[in-house]
Amino acid sequence: MTDEGRSGTGAVLSVRDLTVGYRVQHQLRAVVHDISFEVQAGQVLALVGESGSGKTTTGHAILGLLPANGKVIGGRIRFRDQELTDLSPKGWRDLRGRAVSLIPQDPAVSLDPVRRVGGQVEDVLRLHTGLNAAGRRQRVLELFGQVGFTDVERRYRQYPYELSGGMRQRVLIAAAIAASPDLIIADEPTSGLDATVQKQVLDLIDDLRARSGTSVVLITHDLGVAADRSDLIGVMQAGRLVEVGPTRELIAAPKHPYTQRLLESVPSRLTLTREQAVQASAERDTVIEVRGLRKLYGDVAAVNGVSFEVRQGETFSIVGESGSGKSTTARILTGLTQATAGSASLLGTDITNLGRRAFRPLRRDVQIVYQNPYSSFDPRFGVFDVVEEPLRSFESSQLPWKRRAANEERVVAALESAALPADFIKRHPRELSGGQRQRVAIARALVLGPKVVVLDEPISALDVSVAAQILALLRQLQQERGLTYVFISHDLAVVRAISDRVAVMQQGSIVEQGPIEDVFNAPRHEYTVGLLNAIAGRNLLVGT
Predict the structure, then answer these.
(1) Cα radius of gyration rounded to whole Å, the chain
(2) pLDDT digit string (tens) for 129-187?
(3) Which residues neighbour 341 within 8 Å (Cβ) at sequence distance 6 or greater?
(4) Rounded Cα distance, 406 and 24, in Å
(5) Quick one: CA dihedral 237, 240, 242, 243, positive or negative?
(6) Residue 21 CA, distance from chain mean position
(7) What pTM was estimated for this model as a whole?
(8) Lesser CB count within 10 Å: N end or C end of the chain?
(9) CA 218/CA 204 separation, integer angstroms
């Protein structure tokens, strides 16, 4: 804890020596150890750290929302002058929602799917205000206006499934601020949102804080968001608060080795060596050529007149927000969807009208790595079977026991190329971390020796340091094997770190494309400018 934090008076939130544990198999195991911090009125404290660091457990302990097997083992939590660690259920019902509130991570889970959203926000007012039915309804309409909705009467009557992810998150923010709380715990409030929607949500929280003086504990794994939106940063590792201090000071001069490693892993600070220059790649063979590509679903054009080329050995990224058409384009390139019009050529073969059976011979040369590797694995398969699957599909007519012996060397080589040890063939994907699973997915994509790899949001679900390792691995494999990558992402900071050229998609069309430095340093289209302005982490450049 900094001297500034210790000397603060009138803290809205004071956490001292907090230790939290979970009971597993009749044994209480501490997962958060002796953490201390303070948040003053109107301040934003960002708790950052990787998955499993204890930041969400800390937030839930503050709000009295630990699961049934969770328990505060030691320390104290004070809100204003009130001790929270021994608060009764009735005390929590009175406090939570009125004076302290939560903005949860996943609105799809947090909102009741069979109730209109207006009524769900009214629940807070029913519990914590004396407003009558008409007053509650009017207050919800005002809140919906505050969180940026237009046509608030219509939004009031809608169900969650009728709203986008960003809109649902705005409903949760409206519920969190309905009773004008003094403290908001925001648990990954923009996780999974597009960059521009993320910026809108964070701007909204900033605006509400500025107008009402509300204090915020912002729980996030995104150091860019923490750097841009907080006054203080607390860095958590393995359940301990390893460093805490004013945001600009911590970013400019991190003291703890773990903080230093995290900051070095942020995409805006990554420098991935590009041994082949864009000028050199211009002289290479064209391996993908797309002209006037269209894909209709009914009357809706998911892809509308898209044209681009990708040359051997380069990384061509397609960026855009959800619904822009980038993943549909990837599905056409990998033979999972047929185009409605236009043409697409892959490694000299016209794939425009190829069905899945006709496309199959090309799958040796073009492979795909998905965002969530675990969902793409057969749940019955161990790691060996997952990586061997393409070999079974394309090369094996042997009996199973002979096939395994014949393929083991190639599976091990693929795993080792993805920086995994040979003994992983004996493990099951459920035993692995997210980064290890993604490496298994990369090994599976490489085992046949493809020429083109399509990567569809391959690191969006990974912690920042793991993502940095995967990006470095992909670049190394490209340099060693001359691989061509089509990289699909909504994260422009990541795209800048790995790409040679980029295409920006909006509503099914490419609005701008070119060498990465040209597009990022001198964008011509207003949509590209908006995307670039929404990138979190500009403050991470302080001191570098």
Answers:
(1) 25
(2) 999 999 999 999 999 998 888 899 999 999 999 988 888 988 999 999 999 899 999 99
(3) 292, 293, 294
(4) 43
(5) positive
(6) 27
(7) 0.81
(8) C
(9) 14
